[in-house]
Design brief:
It is built from 10 helices and 10 strands.
């Protein structure tokens, strides 16, 4: 039985994995960041300190077990907010030391990549992973655990960052992605012709600063339109971002001859992204996978699962494991 701990940004999460079964997963969101329009690192760290023990205890309670039942602990060590990472990592070290059980450090992005394995239908290696969240947008060929080829990344804003910034322009609270998704369902996605930056270039890199600037200028030049056409503007923006993400990913899958496509990270919960991926992947005779929305955002279940996979291969860490704010795959 393995305990997973995730505390890399603004959510404290703990999960218990019993064999291959997810026994419990508890996620505590720090909603007070809404008023600031984004995550405040110092406040996030303090909130993790207050939340981590109750969250772990709740995970034990829901799973019907206790600390003495654990055989290992998996914890996020990178990347993320340094203060937040240190809270989770030091808690995990203390508990592992007291129980004399192994500790496994998990890379946050690596855990997202394999989060689709938490579902009953699983992709087969090798697969192509689109990691798309507030801080990351990557295209990765996944050969095996620890064997990755990054073929594309964002050159500026991540997709989720663009959602939040454009959402703020539209008067939405942080995080804006879910609200834009909801508003877009009844909107006209052709209302505004936002740019599809780098969609047809010869790389698999992304750029979302252009659409953010385009939205800024459009709203500046059309101040009286927003109230009556909020859903149309949101739908137009969302469609442009999704077209780029899906278009580049499908093209990469064809070029690299990969059958299985995985979309992970918070933005992968977007309903249009999922439906467009499924539709186009089926036409291209590809298989599309994405974890359920609750497991798409930052969560400890993916940390526990990848930790268990690493332990099965004899991979573990010791108490010298160090938190790192920035480290690539």
């Amino acid at each position: 039985m393995i305990l997973g701990i995730e505390s890399s940004c603004d959510e404290t999460s703990a999960a218990i994995l019993r064999g291959q079964e997810l026994a419990s997963v508890i996620i505590s969101s720090q909603l007070f960041h809404n008023r600031f329009g984004g995550v405040v690192p110092e406040l996030a760290s303090r909130a993790h300190v207050k939340a981590i023990i109750p969250i772990v205890e709740e995970a034990f309670s829901k799973a019907g077990c206790g600390a003495k039942d654990l055989t290992a602990i998996a914890v996020t060590y990178a990347p993320g907010l340094m203060g937040a990472l240190l809270v989770g990592l030091n808690f995990a070290k203390g508990l592992a030391l007291s129980l004399q059980i192994p500790i496994v450090g998990v890379h946050h992005i690596e855990a997202h990549i394999f989060s689709a394995l938490l579902e009953e239908e699983k992709p087969e290696l090798p697969f192509l992973a689109l990691v798309v969240s507030g801080g990351h947008t990557l295209l990765v060929i996944v050969e095996d655990i620890g064997e990755y080829k990054v073929i594309g990344k964002t050159l500026d804003d991540a997709a989720g960052e663009a959602f939040d910034k454009v959402g703020k322009m539209l008067g939405m609270t942080y995080p804006a992605g879910p609200e834009i998704d909801k508003l877009s369902k009844n909107g006209n996605a052709s209302f505004v012709k936002f740019p599809r930056s780098m969609l047809n270039d010869n790389t698999y890199d992304f750029s979302f600063s252009g659409i953010k600037t385009s939205a800024l200028y459009y709203l500046r030049d059309n101040p009286n339109i927003v109230k009556d056409h909020l859903g149309d503007i949101a739908a137009s923006f969302q469609q442009a971002v999704v077209d780029v993400l899906v278009g580049k990913t499908i093209r990469a899958a064809r070029e690299y001859g990969v059958c299985d496509i995985v979309a992970v990270g918070g933005v992968s919960a977007n309903s249009l992204l999922r439906s467009q991926f499924k539709e186009i992947a089926e036409k291209q005779k590809k298989r599309f996978f994405s974890p359920r929305p609750m497991l798409s955002t930052d969560n400890a279940a993916m940390i526990a699962m990848l930790g268990a996979l690493k332990l099965d291969r004899g991979i573990s860490d010791d108490l010298s494991l160090t938190a790192m704010a920035r480290v690539s795959l």
